Amino acid sequence: MASLPGKVVVITGSTSGIGLGMAETFAREGAQLVINGFGNDQEIAGMTRHLQGLSNREVLYHRADMSKPNEIESLIQEAESKLGAVDVLINNAGIQHVAPVDEFPADRWDSVIAINLSACFHTIRHALPGMRKRGWGRIINIASVHGLVASPNKSAYVAAKHGVIGLTKTVALETAQTAITCNAICPGWVLTPLVQQQVDARAAQHQLTETAARQQLLLEKQPSGEFVSPEQLGALALFLCSPAGEQIRGAAWNVDGGWLAQ
């Protein structure tokens, strides 16, 4: 597997859901972490202590708003200045809004594109020079099965995630003759706070129990009838950081319980 002790791993959107699961996975491998996301000071302090306990390494928190390019630049600069590098960059921050395209609020479109797509460009743009200088790096973009196939009422999210995969391929080609790789992971349904909101909305709309709403949501798209877990996604990310992943470049790995096999 990956030789990660001491490596600096920056994970955006890592105070809950997939990002937190990724942080725990990499902490157990002895990585130094920079986490990012929303939460009050007490929550963040507890999370930092938890991750430090797993890794016995330094864990930094940066409160960058991933819709703001200057704060994204500060995130990468602080990781490099305080920990010496950004060896692994995991772009995970994301938001969702659901509405028909002709009713989609323009400000929500702009927010989804900014956080789900443009933030990936800005983090990569600032992290890549240091990776080139050090001669090694891993960039992992958490896209979505919606980067490979569409669903109604998710125009901004689908557009952004398709864009993430295009960006992934371009960066992979630009770094193809280096020891830097860039790949995307495309999860299906993962029970994150973002997905829980959709479960709750479905339960309220159709007067279902939470369990029934979850199962209905899953079986519409995901033949396994089970959620993908953050731990499974973290294990794949570790594999992409390992020597076995050296020639995996520009890939979009769907982890989706059979969603795309239909």
- Give the total of domains: 2
Give the C-level CATH assignment of the largest domain: Alpha Beta
Structural class: alpha/beta
| Percent of sequence in beta strands | 5-15%
Radius of gyration: 18 Å
Order of strands, main sheet, comes to 3-2-1-4-5-6-7
- Quantity of strands, as a count: 7
For the report, how would you describe the main beta sheet? Answer: 7 strands, parallel
Tally of separate helices: 8
Pattern of helices and strands:
EHEHEHEHEHEHHHE
Structural commentary:
With 262 residues, this protein is an alpha/beta fold. The protein folds into two domains: 8-188 and 228-256, 3-Layer(aba) Sandwich (Rossmann fold); 190-227, no CATH class. Helices cover 49% and strands 13% of the residues. The protein has eight helices and seven strands, in the order E-H-E-H-E-H-E-H-E-H-E-H-H-H-E. The chain has helices spanning 17-28, 41-55, 69-83, 106-134, 155-174, 193-206, 210-221, 230-241, and strands at residues 8-11, 32-36, 59-62, 88-91, 137-142, 180-187, 252-255. Strands 3-2-1-4-5-6-7 form a seven-stranded parallel sheet, with helices on both faces. Strand 2, helix 2 and strand 3 (59-62) form a beta-alpha-beta unit. Helix 3 packs parallel to helix 4 (106-134) and helix 6 (193-206) packs across helix 7. The two termini are 32 Å apart. The model has no long low-confidence stretch (mean pLDDT 96).
What does this entry show, briefly?
The protein has helices at 17-28, 41-55, 69-83, 106-134, 155-174, 193-206, 210-221, 230-241; strands spanning 8-11, 32-36, 59-62, 88-91, 137-142, 180-187, 252-255.
